[in-house]
Amino acid sequence: MSLVGKVESLWRYPVKSMRGEELEEAFVGFSGVYGDRLFAFKSSAAPNGFPYLTGREQEEMLLYRPRFRHPERAAKPPNLSEAEGMAPGINPVFADAVDLAVDVEAPSGQAFGVDDPALMSLLAKRMGDGPVLTLRRSERAMTDCRPISLFSIQTGRQLGDEIGTVLDKRRFRANIYMDLASTGGFAEDSYVGRTLRIGPKVVISVLERDPRCKMITIDPDTAQPNPQILRTVNQTHDNKAGVYGAVLVEGTIRRGDVIDVA
Questions:
Q1: DSSP string, 116-182
Q2: Predicted pLDDT of residue 206
Q3: How buried is 23 (Cβ within 10 angstroms: 0-12 exposed, 13-18 middle, 19+ buried)?
Q4: How far lies 119's CA from each of 41, 105, 110, 161, in Å?
Q5: pTM
Q6: Which of 112, 157, 186, 210 could cysteine-pair with 119, CB 3.0–4.6 Å?
Q7: pLDDT (tens digit, 9 = 90+) per residue, 28-62?
């Protein structure tokens, strides 16, 4: 294996399409980052193949700030130490639902439990008459595609240079942001079909480049779209930026952990 960089930052998104939270460390399991995309809102107006309400339809969703009510209990599986102490490869369990309760702060500053009907009413109000929202919860991260997304800060920097602006990395909503030794962007494309070891234990198989959509156009602080970003990714980079992976060996990743590629 050869050293290619380090973990620049770690992120999870407790509610799909809402604001993410930066972590000092994260348990990464076969189903994704622990607590990532734990909740999502299903919309009756969405297609069956992708039934969620997201920022594609309602940009302001990115301004809603979800937080775990008990962050210390939501940091990792409650029996992680015991499972790892028994034998390699034993899967830890998710905490009870009450320990993974999420509250959401709306852009107005008003706070709701994620299961509060008033929150669904607030989101649905912007959709007009007809669509019905229901809350979904899944211990398998409700990602768009693969369980783990990775993105290098060099790729974000290059895209910003191509567009002529500085791009906030949060637009790309990755779980693992990488600071790679390569000075140019899109070096992570070369990892497709290879494996990454991150930190002392976690192994991720890089499966494919990440196809992009309207989400990257939305400013994470203002919710204002900049269509030029997606046009540039589409025209110059085959509409892809960053990579998707699947976890082969579970474990805890920390900010600053080294990344090796095989």
A1: -HHHHHHHHHTT-SS--EEEEE-SS---SSSSEEEEEHHHHHHHHHHHTSPPPGGGG--SEEEEES-
A2: 98
A3: buried
A4: 11, 10, 10, 39
A5: 0.96
A6: 112
A7: 999 999 999 999 999 999 999 999 999 999 999 99
Note whether 243 and 185 are within 8 A (CB): no
- The C-alpha atoms of residue 40 and residue 52 are separated, in whole angstroms, by 7
The single residue listed with the structure tokens 């997606």 is 230
Residue type, position 134, single letter: T
> 210-221 burial string, b = 16+ CB within 10 Å, else e?
bebeebbbbbbe
Distance CA 54, CA 44 (A): 13
The Cα 103–Cα 114 span in angstroms is: 5
Instruction: Tally Cβ neighbours within 10 Å of residue 67.
Output: 17
- Cα–Cα distance measured from residue 256 to residue 254, given in angstroms and rounded to the nearest whole number: 6
Burial of 87 by CB count in 10 Å (0-12 exposed, 13-18 middle, 19+ buried)? exposed
The string of pLDDT tens digits covering residues 97-140 is 999 999 999 999 999 999 999 999 999 987 877 789 999 999 99
Report the mean per-residue pLDDT for the chain.
Answer: 96
